[in-house]
Design goal:
Blueprint: H1 2-33, H2 39-47, E1 55-61, E2 64-70
Antiparallel strand pairs: 1-2
């Protein structure tokens, strides 16, 4: 009985570890895509297929402030 419980627990732990490793690898691959993207490409990637997404970017340059609003697929609104 103890051996069976030990095998089941070992299996569960192994599945959790493999799942976590897979998740970390996936996230790492996704994050490595971002540094090579332009500003517009990163927004399009982040907002892709989300029609309700809205992102506002504040810009402070030469003592003046402005903002730009982006929506679905990174399109400037």
């Amino acid at each position: 009985m103890k051996k069976k419980v030990l095998k089941v627990l070992s299996g569960i732990i192994l599945i959790v570890i493999v799942g976590l490793i897979g998740f970390v690898v996936y996230i790492n691959i996704q994050m490595n895509k971002l540094p090579g993207m332009t500003f517009e490409e990163s927004f399009a990637y982040t907002l892709k297929d989300n029609k309700n997404a809205v992102v506002t970017i504040g810009i402070y340059k030469n003592g003046e402030s402005s903002y730009e609003v982006y929506g679905k697929d990174g399109q400037k609104l």
